[in-house]
């Protein structure tokens, strides 16, 4: 069986690196754990870092976190479905919101549960996922700020989540200005300007982050050390907190191109024949992981001489060339992962999960 391993030492190192930077700039931050898919083993390792705030997009995952660490502040990071409102009030201390009717329902439920539910109003800043339009923000806030059981603790924005729109100094200054307008008009103080995610960290390192942005929520940079502007690993951080190990279940020298009448495979893919490969062979290995677990494009072989060919539902094919490493059936191959690949693997009940030192 394939195994996903989390290296606790590398995770701790990345956490300390980020925490030091945020403290130097007086920035509050929380860890986004949606990558963990509610896996208790891995969540316990994240909580053991000492973080006091956890963000997740699934209320079931927040329930797991609250059961393990009741005092950790939990943040639900997408607009709430109506059916989930009772659970959101019960298990999320904070939530991101954009719909007035939903906030009114949250208010009713918070009163019913005798709680004050904190919200961050998300503002549309160009990526066209969730967010209140900027020219509607004042009226929107006017309808929210006096609702019973609701406390607005921040304004926030998302970047690079749908259309790839990146954060810039100008966009983040605009977010800060929205906050200042609300504070001046309603004579209140909004504690958080939550414009920071993993994709915003390079602006902080390059001294381009407006001082008003004082809250980050970070997942990808913690687990992968990735600079999303350059595609490289941040200096001083690890890119391989998570590693996939999978066993070779067949290894045979085979032709490099298929033979016979060809049509689409079950994934809807069609293949073109490279005629220069006729008559040539290569060693091919089949691994015990497949499309049910991960899209092959998110796999990064640690042995760079390997070439990932493709996958069916439960098997992955890699090309070994002349197999100069003398791999054999039963050997284990190691892969680093891209974020979306790790997300799939963690959501797969067919992949074992282990913590290593």
UniProtKB/TrEMBL annotation:
Tree of life domain: Bacteria
| Cofactor(s) the protein requires to work | pyridoxal 5'-phosphate
| Pfam families in alphabetical order | Ala_racemase_N
Ranges for domain Alanine racemase N-terminal: 9-225
Q: What class of enzyme is it?
A: isomerase
What InterPro entries does the record point to?
A: Ala_racemase (IPR000821), Ala_racemase_N (IPR001608), PLP-binding_barrel (IPR029066)
Alphabetized, the UniProt keywords read: Isomerase, Pyridoxal phosphate
Q: Any idea of its EC number? A: 5.1.1.1
State the Gene Ontology terms under molecular function: alanine racemase activity
Task: Quote the SUPFAM superfamilies the UniProt record gives.
Answer: PLP-binding barrel
Q: Which PANTHER family match?
A: ALANINE RACEMASE (PTHR30511), LYSINE RACEMASE (PTHR30511:SF3)
- Recorded protein name is Alanine racemase
What is the species of this protein? Pontibacter rugosus
